[in-house]
Amino acid sequence: MNRRSLATIVSASTASALVLTGCGQAGQGDQGGGDGPVRLTMWTHSAGNPAELEVYEQIIADFNESQDDYEVVTEAFPQGAYNDAIVAAAAANDLPCLLDMDGPIVPNWAWAGYIQPLELPTEITDALLPTAVGSYQDEIYSAGYWDAALSIFARESVLQENGIRIPTADDPWTIDEFDSALATLKDAGYDTPLDIGAEDTGEWWPYAYSPMLQSAGGDLINRDTMLSAEGVLNGPEAVEFFTWFQDAFAKGWTSSGGTVGNEEFNNDEVALSYTGVWNALDSLEAAGDDLLILPPPDFGNGPKIGGASWQWGISSTCNSPDGARAYLEFSFQDEYITAFSDKQVVIPATEGAVEASEYFGPDGDLQPFVELSQQFAVPRPETPAYPVISSTFEKAAKDIMNGADVQQALDNAVAEIDANIESNDGYGF
Amino acid sequence: MTTPISTSPAAGLPVPETPRQAGTRRATRGAALRRERRTGLTMAAPALVLLLLFLILPVLLAFGLSFTNARLISPNPPRFVGLDNFLRAFTSDPVFLRSTINTFVFAAVVVPVQAGLGLLLAVLVNQKIRGVTAFRVIYFIPVVTSIVVVSILWRFMYQPDGLVNNFIDTITFGALQGTAWLNNPDTALGAIIVLSIWQAVGFHMLIWLSGLQTIPEELYEAARMDGASVWQQFVNVTWPGLRSTMVFVLVTITIAALGLFVQIDVMTQGGPVNSTTTLVYHAVRKGYREQETGYGATISLIFFVLVLLVALVQRYLTRDKD
């Protein structure tokens, strides 16, 4: 062993490090390589969702065949690891050209400079459901093929047996009606009459429960300034709603046990289920014509449901934004949008696709969701502070569910959100 | 040896008066030593480089970051904020204080109980009876099961209508009813302590067992001849023979217990009402999920200092008194 071998080892490890870096760079894949078509890399979160992936593969195959300038190459990630992969790729300056993202994260990534303004022709973005378009500071950064919606599932026979009025979009349950319905159903033998989905974690919490808060007159943040949550997340309306929320668990109207999904409703263990369109087909199979898709209760300011699902954007480091735009323009065809919505049971984002859809068309079984989405959908606040708001809201709501003092828990949440916004110099607002 | 390696052999040559023979010998010895040193360094290099890259550097970075407002995702460059993060942790972050208390409560219970239980199991499976390997395997199975899987299974068991409550209901003939263990602020941490002890006790059993088997049989024979009872044998032969094993077990359990994270992340996410949040969990939540890298680094730094203090105290208490 001498100096030469040391040099050998050092050079060998340097070489392997270089090779590894090379692999990392290859992932970027934007190099056109001579006369061939420009490669556009594309990442999706849909690795665990074959139905969705199938449509993407179809679109990409059609697009690649339709022209010779660009070639889209896709890579699918499991949803759980997707956001981490994007953040890591951005830190390594290795973002793909095209990427999809959950609606509420769009302002954060736009602010951070991950994505660039979308600049699709307005006739495309104007035709979409408003909640299928993501913007930050009045600039559009993302657009999606569909939206999801929440509703209350019920069985018509159960409501009729118990003398409970069947609500409509124009005449939803008031909160008092809803309370007495839950009490009646509890007396009728349902151990916990409502499955509110509290066993789930993460983004589900603000997605599902912040619209209820908005219906009661509160909100996650003051949307006029986007600088503080003071008075909206801890005001009297918010306290009133969260007191109801806490009571619903304390009185046994709902519980945080059970399994994620809609099993309990399908087995008739709960009478009402607050859940999403993605569970509708299974419930349709279980309950058949008896299934009712009802608007959520009105806590005072009309029913509200969360809007915005997964959407597409173009990274700021994309070497061929024109190619990426060409692909996106190509992909927003009613034909594909219908395929997405019928294969994964989500609400199509254009009128034309709704017409053509098997489930959401005028005679479709899931048509009520379209109405709910159009009338009641509220986007989550379009601010880069959203990830913090989301995490803080979940924590506060869970603490309240478990018996924490309502005002105290909300005050803490507001303090935490406001401190974060301040330490980020207002996130550009 | 303090001779710098870079010195050329000529410079190190002895003065002319020295006998030639001795000079050559010394030069040869010096060269051999240098070669050995270099070989040693070469062999240690891969480990050193990795440690430097993935341990020393991150620690230094965390130290630096904890005095800034660095963010995971931000267009604004990090800014030096002095001791703001430390002030925030100790004065305006009740969750941090709660996390510290929970972490130490957890360690205070887990360290003695897990070590004691491990020793008990080790003594039991050290008997020379048939089928003892089967018991060793059974006690060791939870250790080789992923902690994530274990946590998910125990979450189901702790549900209001889960295995634990059904068990309580059955053996008390319905006289006692369990609670929703993980949703009750009074029981959640206890429930996680039980699961954690159960999961890792097999590992420490194995360490104790290896310690037990290093104690020579003659000592027991001698003790028996002196008429020592089983308990006296344990106190006077086994326990002193396990001293170094005990130090090792205590240190590993303490470090593992203070770093509690996965069970919390999978089972309770720090809830209900902060009753199970821990320092590492809080650091990850703040530093990564809420993207406040600077503040997360501060929490990690405080955690580092606390662990260091605990380790020093432990080292002092278990030092060789002779």
Task: Write up what this structure looks like.
The complex is a heterodimer of chains A (429) and B (322). Chain A has 429 residues and is of the alpha/beta class. Chain A has 17 helices and 15 strands. Chain A folds into 2 domains: 32-147 and 308-362, Periplasmic binding protein-like II (D-Maltodextrin-Binding Protein, domain 2); 150-306 and 385-428, D-Maltodextrin-Binding Protein, domain 2 (3-Layer(aba) Sandwich). In chain A, 46% of the residues lie in helices and 14% in strands. Mean pLDDT of chain A is 89; it is low at 18-33. Chain B is mainly α and 322 residues long. Chain B contains 13 helices and no strands.
How is this structure best summarized?
With 429 residues, chain A is α/β, with parallel strands linked by helices.
CATH topology category name of the largest domain in chain B: MetI-like fold
Helix content of chain A: 40-55%
Name given to the CATH architecture of the largest domain in chain A: 3-Layer(aba) Sandwich
Please give the count of helices of chain B. 13
User: What number of domains of chain A?
Assistant: 2
- The CATH homologous superfamily name of the largest domain in chain B equals MetI-like
In CATH, the topology of the largest domain in chain A is named D-Maltodextrin-Binding Protein, domain 2
In the CATH scheme, the class of the largest domain in chain A would be: Alpha Beta
The biggest beta sheet of chain B is recorded as: none
Proportion in helices of chain B:
55-70%
Layout of helices and strands:
The complex is a heterodimer of chains A (429) and B (322).
Chain A: H1 3-28, E1 38-44, H2 50-66, E2 70-76, H3 79-91, E3 98-102, H4 106-111, E4 115-116, H5 122-127, E5 133-136, E6 139-143, E7 146-147, E8 150-155, H6 156-161, H7 175-187, E9 194-195, H8 204-215, H9 236-250, H10 263-266, E10 272-276, H11 280-287, E11 291-294, E12 305-306, E13 310-315, H12 321-331, H13 334-344, E14 347-348, H14 351-356, H15 367-376, E15 377-378, H16 386-401, H17 406-423
Parallel strand pairs in A: 1-2, 1-3, 9-10, 12-15
Antiparallel strand pairs in A: 3-13, 4-13, 5-6, 7-14, 8-10, 8-11
Helix pairs in contact in A: 2-13, 16-17
Chain B: H1 20-65, H2 84-91, H3 94-124, H4 132-144, H5 147-157, H6 163-171, H7 188-212, H8 217-225, H9 230-241, H10 243-258, H11 262-267, H12 279-289, H13 293-317
